[in-house]
Write a structure and sequence with these properties.
homodimer; alpha+beta; Chorismate lyase; 2 domains; 6-stranded antiparallel beta sheet; two-stranded antiparallel ribbon; 7 helices; 9 strands; about 35% strand; DNA-binding
DNA sequence: TAGTGGTCTAGACCACGAC
DNA sequence: TCGTGGTCTAGACCACTAG
């Protein structure tokens, strides 16, 4: 098995934790080390991961306890929690252009002659409109393979986990051209989230403006 | 010195990192262990903390590198980054009442007879209005000491770090009674952030509604 | 006093990337 | 082949809490 021991233990512990009520104590690190036949440091690494994710919390010199579910961490609006709704996308635009707006050039830190992939799509959950996404990507940052598969992408977690994500929340009125698709009246206040996905080097990779339907999608983060 | 070695090393490394350009490599973990006269695992703990905070990034089998400043993590709208603006608060209301609205009772998970501390204040930066904060706290969760010092509180980080924070972003039009204080026209779209600070047990501790002035305060998170 | 989490050590082996 | 980060071990000492 090539999966690290501490990740295997972590998964087993999640199964155990699910059966326990909030604030119940888990066995001590030394006991768990015996139970899982691993060193205490390895077990500790598993526990630390679960504490970071909000499954457990520690009380120094007392023990480690099961956290309430409301404390499970969700740090960006792009992560999806374990809701069972099926998300689908309907592509409205997909093109590659050399001329992009100054706004896009600035966010992607590119010049006016660089090719930019533009994709505009409607996000649906059970056929109800959740949000409009305007996505801009520097063509040069995509392999041909990635470019071909762009329309099939559901999310950008693969890129975010390799670098970073900055989200800016902008209050605005729903744009006229999107009001109908989101089934909103004009002049309705909404939140537009500007997402910039960065590479590890800090260079911008993806710029995405998300116009959220407040009737359907609650923007929430937990930390 | 009672400060753990890995935290001391972390601080020293931050000083070193500040002098380096983005994407510059730092010495290998084995070299740093010699340099700081500590074990590799201890140095590694320092580095991991810096990676989590976005100061460094790792490239497996290659090395560890200085991250771009845009990647420094800021996971909630309540954290303040190292901007040098002086924040001040002007208290508008401060009282304790047994009768609270159903909304407050629900968020704090309390009954209609429980005493609730209510504080409404204006957040200023260089005399410019940033936001209105409506703060509600179950009186029973505060010691007399904490209650007395409430008006002096700047932030709630001491409580958040002990438990968790959930933030919900609600698009709305600026409430009439706050428009003037925020120097906004009526019918201006703004973001109201609902903050719920939880204890480790999961019980709600603080409920805070923040009406942000979009002209002054950009809501941004990095992760 | 016994048990807990928090820290720390000095080794070890592995997979992978660059040369 | 060599150096890197990633993992893992089997100990150890500490400060603190609860009985």
């Amino acid at each position: 098995m090539s999966i690290p021991i501490y990740l295997q233990i972590k998964e087993k512990m999640i199964d155990t934790i699910r059966e326990l009520p909030a604030n119940a104590p888990i066995p001590s690190e030394r006991d768990l080390a015996i139970q899982y036949d691993a060193s205490r440091m390895t077990v500790r690494k598993s526990i630390n991961a679960l504490v970071d994710e909000g499954y457990l919390y520690r009380d120094s010199n007392k023990g480690t306890f099961v956290a309430d579910k409301v404390l499970h961490k969700k740090n960006t609006t792009l992560e999806k929690k374990d809701d069972n709704r099926k998300i689908s996308y309907k592509t409205i635009y997909f093109d590659v252009k050399a001329s992009s707006s100054e706004e896009v050039q600035e966010r992607l830190n590119i010049g006016p002659e660089d090719s930019v992939v533009r994709m505009i799509r409607l996000m649906l959950s059970d056929d109800r409109p959740q949000a409009i996404e305007e996505i801009y990507i520097n063509r040069l940052n995509l392999s041909d393979e990635e470019f071909r598969n762009l329309p099939k992408w559901q999310d950008f977690n693969a890129f975010i986990s390799k670098g970073g994500l900055t989200q800016r929340f902008v209050p605005t009125l729903v744009p006229m051209q999107y009001a109908h698709m989101l089934e909103l009246k004009i002049h309705e206040p909404i939140i537009m989230v500007e997402n910039i996905v960065n590479q590890k080097s800090g260079k911008p990779l993806i710029y995405m403006k998300v116009f959220n339907n407040p009737k359907e999608k609650v923007i929430e983060i937990t930390s």
